[in-house]
Predict the structure of TonB-dependent receptor.
Amino acid sequence: MSLAGKLVTGIICIILCFPLKVSGWDWQTRVTVVVKDQPLRVVCEILEKEYGIHFSYSRELVDLSRKVTVTAQQQRLRSLLEQLFAPDDIRFTRVGDQLVLQQEKRINRTISGYVQDAVSGEKLPGATIYAPSLKQGTTTNQYGFFSLTTVKDTNSLVVSYVGYESALLPVEGQANRILLVPLQPLPSLQEVVISGTDKTKLQDQTQMSRVNLPLAAVKSMPKLLGEADVMRTLQSMPGVGGGMDGAGGLHVRGGSPDQNLILMDGTPVFNFSHFFGVYSLLNADVVKSADLYKGAFPARFGGRLSSVVDISLKDGDMRHYHGDVAIGMISAKFNLEGPIIKDKTSFIVSARRSYPDLVYNMALKTDTDFGKDGAFYAYFYDVNAKINHIFSAKDRIYLSLYKGEDNLLIRTVPDTVNLDNAGRLTESSHFQLKWGNTIGGLRWNHIYNTRLFSNISLNYSQYAFRTEFGFKYTMPVVGTTSDQYGKYSSRMENAGIKIDFDYRPMPNHSIRFGGALTGHYFKPGISEFSDKGSTIKPLDSTGTGFRTRGTEMLLYAEDDWRLLPDLFANVGFHASGFLVEGRFYHSIQPRLGLRYMLPRNWAVKASYTHMNQYIHLLSTSGTSLPTDIWVPSTQRVAPMYSRQVAAGVAKTSTNLAFEFSLEGYYKSMYNMIEYATNDMLVNDDLKRWDENVVIGKGWSYGGELMVKKQKGSTTGWIGYTLSWSNRQFPGINNGKIFPYKYDHRHDVEVVLSQCIGKRWELSASWHYTTGAPLTLPVSSYHGVGTASPWDPGSTDVSVDRYDGRYNYRAADIHRLDVGVTYSKQKKYWRKSWNFSIYNVYNQKNPFIYYMKRDEIQKQRYLSKVTVLPILPSITYSIKF
C-alpha cells in the first residue's frame, strides 16, 4: 500500500474509534476524574466532555452545588455515579445516550435543644453543631439553644465549644424532642487556652467586624492591680481604644464613649467603669461570654452609633456548690454558686470591694495633706446576683440583679494660717463624689416547637451621680466670713420590655425578629447652693434642671440566608421611633452583610449598616467621667445617625491554629453635638443646654489587621489599626474640618500567653497608640487684676487666646504589662498566685495636660499629669 493509502486508512480508523470514546459508553466504562473541592456539576461537565455522557436534569429540581473532592482512576462509571449522587438522594437512569437525573424528595427532621456544661448544667452560647455528611451546621444562641434541620440519612452531629471536649450526638430517634447535649469541660485554664479552638471558623461566619471574647482570653491577660478585666481586654482589639492611661470608656472606630451600647444580660448599662476607669463594672469571674460588634450590626441591635458589647453572665451551677475567693493589693472579691433545687433552680452571687481608703488611713494616722484627723475615702463596691429556674423542658426564667457604687470623700478639719496683711485665716472643707448603677432584668425563655424559640425580657437600669462640697473660712481682721455649701446631682432611668424570636426553618435560613418598648427618664442638673456666712441674705439658689421623659420603640427582622453555594447574606431592617417633648422622631435602618467563599477557604466579606441614637452625653472631656450627663434629643437637637460600610477578608487555618482578618471601613456621622466654646462647663440649670451646643457631622475611616494564634502552648494576637476621625461644626475652627479628640492615627497591640506545664502561665501585652488631638491656647495675655479676699497678694490674671479646635497632638502612648500565674490543685480546692506589673518600664504617659506658669522666668509652659506609673500587684485566690 502506498504511503498516501496508509495515511488515509489511519485517519479513517481514528475517526471511527473516537466516537467509541465519547458516545460508546455503558455502566462498566472505566473513567478517570480528579477534582478538589469543586461543585458536583463540574464533575458532570468533565464526564460529558471526556466521555460523551450527556446529563439531563432541571436546575430548579436537582441541586448539583455541593462541593466534592474526587480522585477516581479507571473507576467503573456506575460505581462513581452512586458515590457522587447518593448523598443528595439523586436517582439516575439512562435514556438513550443521556443520563436523566431526578432528586428524590428528602425527608427532613429537625434536631433541637440546649448545649450545656456536663458538670454544672450551665448553658453554652455560641456552641457549634455540625453535620459532617451535609457540610452544614449552626450555633447555639445566647441562651444555649440550637435548631438544625437535617435529612433522613444523617446519622450523627458533632457538637463543640471553646474549652470543652467535642461530642458526637446520635440523630436517630431524636427528632421532635428537646435535647440536652452535655459537653465535658477541659480540666484547667491552661488546657482551655491550649485546646480551646472548637468554634466556628472565620470564613464560615457571615458576620464581620465582630470579636468573640472567651473568658480564658480575659483571664490570660496581664492584670492591672490583680484584676482580670473584660473591657480592658476589648481595648486591646484592633479598632478599639481606651483613651489615656487611667481613663475609662471605649472609643470604637473613631466614636465617643456614649456611642457604645453595653448590654449586661440584655439590660443597657450607662457607665461601665469603677475607680475613674481603672476597673470595669463587672467582676470577670461571673462573665460567661462577651461579643463586641464594631460594625455590620445585626438588626436586633440599635440605639448607638459605634459598637455593641453584648455580655452574658453565668447562670449558676445546677448540681454542685462551689466558688472562689481572691484578695489583692487594693481589692477583694468572692463568688458562690450552686443549686437551690438540684437540676431545677440555681443561683450565683458575687461581691467585690476595693480598700485603698483603708490602707491610706491606716498608714497615715499623723498629720496629712487633709489636716490632723482629716479623712480620705476612695473605694467602690459591686454585687451581682442571678437566679435561674427551669419550669419545664420548654420554659425557664432568669432573674439578674446588680448594684454598684463608687465613693470619693476628702475632708479637712479647721486649719489656721497667718496672713501678713489680713491677720489669721481659718478654713476647712469637704468634697464628696458618688456615682453608681442599679440594674435588674427578668427573662423568660420559651420553646414553641423544634424550630421556634422566644425570649421575653423586662429590664430596668439606673445611673446616678451626686457631688457635694462645703467650704468655711473666717478672716476676723477684714470681717469676712463664709460658710458655703453646694451639691449637684443627676440621674437617668430606663425601663423596658422586649420580645425576641429565633426561627430556624431550614439550614439555609436563620431568622430573628422582635420588638421592644423602652421608657427613658432624665433628671440631670439638680443643683443647690447656699452661703450662710454671706452678708447678703439670702444668698442661695436651687436649679431644678432639665427633667423630661422619652419613649423609644423598635421592630426588627433579620435572616442569615444562603443565596448561592458560595454566597451568603445577612439581610435585616431595624425600624425605631422616639417620642419626646411632643415630637416623634423615626428611622428606618437597613442592615446588610455579605460573604463570598473563595478558593482555599478564604472569605470575602462586606457590610452596610445604618444606626440611630436618640440620647446624647454632655461632656467636656475626651474620657468617660462619672459627672458626664445624659440628655435626650430635643426640638432643636435631632437624633444622631451614622452610615457605615466595611469590607475585608478572613480565614482560619486548616489546623485551626491561626486566624487572619483584614478589614477596611468608612463611617459618616450626623447631628453630632459639641460645646460652642472651649471652656464650656455644664450649667447649673440645664434647661437650655441645647442652646449652648453646635450641631455638626463627622467621619471616621481606616483599616484593621489582626493575626491570632489560638492553638498550642503559646497563644495571643497582634493587632494593628490605621485610622482617621474628623469632625466639622459651624462656628468652630472657622467651619473647617479638624481631627477630633478620638483621632489616633496608629495603634498597635501585641498580646502573648505562654503555658509552662499545668501550673505556670506567663503573659505579656504591649500597647502603642498615637497621641490624641488637644485644644491649647496659642498665646495669652498676662496682667494685673483684683485681689481676692482669701489671697490678697495675688493680682495676676492670664487670658488665653485660642486659634482653632484640637490644634495640638499629645505625646504618643506606649506601655508594657507582664504577669505570671501559678496554680496548684489541692484535694478540695485549687489555689493560685498572680504576680503582675503594669507599665513595666514606667512610661510617663499623659493623663491631663495643663498650662503652668513659671513665676521666675515669667513664662507659661505646657505640663502634664501622669496617674499610672509602674504598678506591681499580687493576688491570691482559692477556687473550691
